[in-house]
Amino acid sequence: MFALEITGVDRTFHVAGKPVPALRDISLSIREGEFVAIVGGSGCGKSTLLRLILGLDRPDRGEVRVGGQPVRGPGLDRGIVFQEHRLLPWLTAETNVAAALRRSGLDSAQRRQRVAEYLDLVGLTAFAKAWPAQLSGGMAQRVAIARALVNRPRFLLLDEPLGALDALTRLRLQAELARIVRHGGTTALLVTHDVDEAVFLADRLVVMQPHPGRISDVLTVDPAARRDRSSAVFLRVRDKVLGMLGVETEAVRAGAYETAA
Amino acid sequence: MKRVLPLLVPLVALAVWEAAARLSHVSHELLPPPEKVAYRLWDGFAHGGMTGDLAASLLRELSGFVIGATGGVALGLLLGLSRPACRLLGPLFLGYRQVALFAWVPLLSMWFGGGEQGKVAFIALAAMAPSAVNTWRGTSALPHSYIELSRVLMFRPLDYVRFVALPGALPAILTGLRSSLIAAWLATVGAELFLDVAPGLGGRMNEGRETFQMDLVLASVVLLGLLGLTFSRLAVAAEKSLLKRRAA
Ligand SMILES: Nc1ncnc2c1ncn2[C@@H]1O[C@H](COP(=O)(O)OP(=O)(O)O)[C@@H](O)[C@H]1O
Ligand SMILES: [Mg+2]
Questions:
Q1: Which domain holds residue A129?
Q2: Which domains does chain B have, with CATH numbers?
Q3: How many CB atoms lie within 10 A of CB A220?
Q4: What is the pLDDT of residues B123-139, one digit of tens each?
Q5: Is the pLDDT of residue A260 over 60?
Q6: How many separate domains does chain A show?
Q7: Which residue of A has its CA nearest to B145?
Q8: How many angstroms separate the alpha carbon of residue A13 from the centre of ligand 1?
Q9: For A177-208, how does the pLDDT look when each residue is reduced to its tens digit (9 = 90+)?
Q10: Quick check: B170 and B242 in contact, CB under 8 A?
Q11: Contact: A74, B154; criterion CB under 8 Å
């Protein structure tokens, strides 16, 4: 059984009376424990797809199933990290994480213990009492990751979670994210426009194209690629995906991967 | 220099008042000089029962403020958070705002009488509007992303009010409460002047007018102004300390 099954999903918005097809005939299945990355330029419907999985929006056609059940609305089985951390500025790091446990059914001692556990997982125990305004962008995003995971969701959805961070912080958090997600064995779906990030983190890549938003390619990433960002196998996958997105690299143009691919 | 500047205009005004009282032909009965008013103020507190009047007015103001502001914040939350409530009550509330406050006096005195109840009702009505308007505006201006977050975290409506709406709208609510406090103080004097005579600063002013003691009238005016200023200052300070931690 698949953790997530999307079958024949269409979603069209209407802007000023004109139809804007955001998603056209999307089908995708994700296995339990898999880490899948969706790459594509902006406007190809990546966020719309995540909103459908979250149950914040309904497809016009087709179906989204999580754990075999059709999605009817949001649920604590799916956690999300948005591009902006979306922490509540009037709550401390720890109370922001604790707020996610309102409907968890845990008692207050269990909640405290759970919050401490996840702040520790993201390495922010020392900043439990800090206000969001006192945290750097990377730290705030780590709190947001803790908040998304604290209910131990079966699904972690990440909508360009590192997109707003500086390059160094982003690299550091990519490694953190790899560790955190593999640690919990959560099934993860990452949306990103950073192809390196996708290749580094994911087991499988889904390439989307815009107007209308659709899936053009799905490829499996060789686990060897993840081990070294400068390895030939990493670069080959990356350049291939860049090519699919219409970015020709020098190596592709020179035909360097013709035989290897 | 910065500390002296705000005092400049009041000092000049005081000097003009002094000069007018001394140099013009207007009798001191009509325009008593400042020192006479100051003396009257001191005398009022020392022997004239002004403390009791002040306490009576303050108690009245605070009762009306607490009732009105609580109702105002509740109404503002309802208007800001519930679309049906906003559609049903919004226009009614905006219409009510178009009616001058004193137009309610006859109605309120019929319903509640001209005594203590009528006065407090009038003050509460005056205090209600600013709290309601600001709370309404503050809650309906919250970013949509917080609503989305609350849905993802499966918040119940009360969770949303507690974790998002109230703290998110807090700056606006505090602005509303401050305006309500001032409105309540203005309404207190109005109620005391236009409803039944009772102990209080307004009553004292009426007495001064009827017995032709302009110094008493002016002393009451000065006291009202000073207290209004104090309220405003206290409210601003409370607001600052409440919102401080967020800015960090
Ligand atoms: N609520 C909405 N109303 C109207 N158009 C929308 C809405 N949400 C998304 N769209 C449109 O759908 C397309 C896909 O948007 P989105 O899913 O945000 O893309 P991405 O996340 O890949 O950048 C865009 O053209 C966007 O303008
Ligand atoms: Mg997006």
A1: 87-152
A2: 51-247 (1.10.3720.10)
A3: 10
A4: 999 999 999 999 999 99
A5: no
A6: 1
A7: A86
A8: 8
A9: 998 888 888 999 999 989 999 999 999 999 99
A10: yes
A11: yes
